[in-house]
Amino acid sequence: MRNAGVIWLLAVVELVVFLDTTVINVALPSIGADLGLTEAGLGWVVNAYLLAFGGFLLIGGRAADVFGARRAFVAGLLLFTAASAAAGFAQTAWLLVAARAAQGIGAAVVIPAQLALIARTYPDPEDNRKAFGIWSAMGAAGAALGTAAGGPLTEFLGWPSIFLINIPVGIVALALSSPVLSADPPVRAVRLDIAGAITGTAGLLLAGYAIGEFAVPGRAPTAWLLVALAVVLLAVFVALQRRNVELLMPLRLFRVRALTGSTVVNVLVGAAHVPVFALLALYLQGSQDYGPTEAGLAVLPVALVNVTASRTVIPAVVKAWGHAGTLAAGLAAQAAAMVWLARLPEETTYFADVLPAALLLGIGLPAAFVGVTAPAVNAVAEADRGVAAGVVNTAQRVGSGIGVSALLALAGVIGGTTGLRVSFAVAAGLAVLGCVLTLVMLRGPERATSEANAA
Prior knowledge:
This protein has about 450 residues and is mostly helical. Helices cover about 80% and strands about 0% of the residues.
């Protein structure tokens, strides 16, 4: 594989960015004790990253298109690394929440830039499949490794270490960016869509916040009000995108079936798999007396199988079945894992009850990630790859927020192990629905359309 250094640089940064979505979970009690945060305050420590990450992806994607993918990658990574340092050294709750939001903005710039760089660096189909396989594996492994690493780091080094470990990775990646990544073309003169950026980002942030509010008892009226405001802002955003200017999200891109299908399915990818890690942690620590480190290590096989499958099996599957077939197979494997978890007994045996599901997730997650991302990015013109990546990844972040809030609330309402089983079963249903929609919406040749590439 030519230019192997590029994909490994991007993949390591990808792992760290997605690791930060879950690494904080087991550290929350320690953070709350040190900074005097209630459960509501701790929720903001988590959601500040997730909401900023999801809300700013469209802006990050367009930044990669306008200013150049390498420039955007470096700027986003610099912000992410500096914000990680601020979070690690935070002595007050407000500073930690602000630093987490800044981390999320940095991540929202980094991810679309990475995808644009991969598509630009690896135009050869074989290399493209391998590169997207490695990148997808690291993203999927990051969520599992975050849960696995968060426990030991918090227990032995203290909660600031979960943020400070990002600093050496960021410094090395920044130093390697210039010699490893190809230079961008000169920045073209553009008229930035400021109104679109404000309405689109504000709408997504409000929608994400409203989803969390539905899970808080007594906050439903406020949540509905926020949903209504978010709908108005997003409607204004769509109306603005119909103008003939430099747009944040050109609506012509949705003429590309690969982009539209990937966007719809990616909502279900996020809603199905992200809640599983939280539900499993609740089960293991709540009813099985696992400690934070033990609960983290319980999902480590997901990451190990992830990386192995992505280097061996998944590129061959993509070559034989195409991206749609790989995505459908990945979602089917995830559904099987969630069905297995839906039968968890009151007293579990790890090797019989948890490990099989972890192995299935280890195969299914990277297959779904590469199958849902690569078609959309490869199907549009180079000048639109950043925003295409932003759209698809925004869909997954939105789906993740809906899934986590809804399935955790469902588990809480029913209560006990039964509630967790029901939530796992619902997650399996979402994965099955995603599999069906994949076969309906994404079958056929994977190529750009003339409408997508038209000026």
